[in-house]
């Protein structure tokens, strides 16, 4: 895979080193001479130029790349690079770094962004995931589909403790993608039993009511059942 990275800061260089270690071809573009630390990523191709200029992107042959990553510390630059790459050069995949969470709403297909990566939001999610038990934590949102990846750690009082995955009355457009038990990831089957402390990774459609999902998994009202389906009748219990 051929990847062009705009922004030679610590983020851009780290991404480049990781991609190179997986045998991908990488070019790094930056307009600041001080950022051209070629020796730190010697296996990449480097270009000192302004990536917001069409001539620079043409020189970098971005029309031949598979992915362009806009990883600068300036949201305006990342948006312009994504838009030019998508509309002028037809780059198949654009990934843009979001520095200010207030700007997240702009990082969508209208600006040519296929995947927006918000470092502050990811860090917030990781902090919440580390301390939250019994709360849904949004880990990632797919901008094209609007689907979410959610994480939930089952508390001791969850009605689902001791039940099998196949018995859970999951809301529509909700899929249990994985169970993490201790350090062991598990591909869930209908026969797996849920245990206290299980981390559930759940994929939901854009219209799923997270409050309803949390009710099913954690604390259903007494007159609304337990979120568990009787295997014989197929009815909630």
TrEMBL record:
Q: RCK N-terminal domain location, by residue?
A: 1-117
**Domain spans labelled RCK C-terminal:** 137-219
Fetch the InterPro entries from UniProt.
K_uptake_TrkA, NAD(P)-bd_dom_sf, RCK_C, RCK_C_sf, RCK_N, Trk_Ktr_HKT_K-transport
Q: Which UniProt keywords apply?
A: Ion transport, NAD, Potassium, Potassium transport, Transport
Classify the source by domain of life: Bacteria
Q: Name one Pfam family in it.
A: TrkA_N
Q: Using the record for this protein, list the coiled-coil segments as residue ranges, or answer none.
A: none
Q: Does the keyword rRNA processing apply?
A: no
SUPFAM superfamilies recorded? NAD(P)-binding Rossmann-fold domains, TrkA C-terminal domain-like
Task: Write down the PANTHER family for this protein, in alphabetical order.
Answer: POTASSIUM CHANNEL PROTEIN 2-RELATED-RELATED (PTHR43833), TRK SYSTEM POTASSIUM UPTAKE PROTEIN TRKA (PTHR43833:SF5)
* Protein name stated in the entry: Trk system potassium uptake protein TrkA
Source organism: Oerskovia rustica
- Organism classification: Bacteria, Bacillati, Actinomycetota, Actinomycetes, Micrococcales
């Amino acid at each position: 895979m051929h990847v062009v990275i705009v922004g030679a800061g610590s983020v851009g260089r780290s991404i480049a080193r990781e991609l190179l270690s997986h045998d991908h071809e990488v070019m790094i573009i930056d307009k600041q001479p001080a950022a051209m630390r070629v020796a730190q990523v010697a296996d990449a191709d480097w270009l000192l130029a302004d990536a917001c200029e069409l001539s620079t992107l043409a020189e970098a042959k971005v029309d031949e790349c598979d992915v362009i990553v806009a990883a600068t510390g300036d949201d305006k630059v990342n948006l312009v690079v994504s838009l030019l790459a998508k509309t002028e050069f037809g780059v198949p995949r654009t990934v843009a770094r979001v520095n200010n969470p207030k700007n997240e709403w702009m990082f969508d297909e209208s600006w040519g962004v296929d995947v927006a990566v918000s470092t502050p939001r990811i860090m917030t999610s990781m902090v919440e995931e580390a301390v939250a038990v019994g709360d849904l934590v949004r880990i990632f949102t797919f901008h094209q589909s609007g689907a979410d990846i959610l994480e939930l750690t089952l508390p001791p009082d969850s009605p689902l403790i001791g039940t099998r995955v196949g018995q859970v009355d999951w809301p529509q457009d909700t899929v249990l993608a994985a169970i993490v038990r201790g350090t062991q990831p598990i591909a869930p089957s209908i026969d797996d039993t849920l245990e206290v402390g299980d981390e559930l990774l759940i994929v939901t459609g854009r219209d799923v009511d997270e409050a309803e999902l949390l009710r099913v998994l954690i604390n259903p009202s007494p007159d609304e059942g337990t979120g568990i389906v009787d295997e014989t009748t197929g009815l909630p219990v």
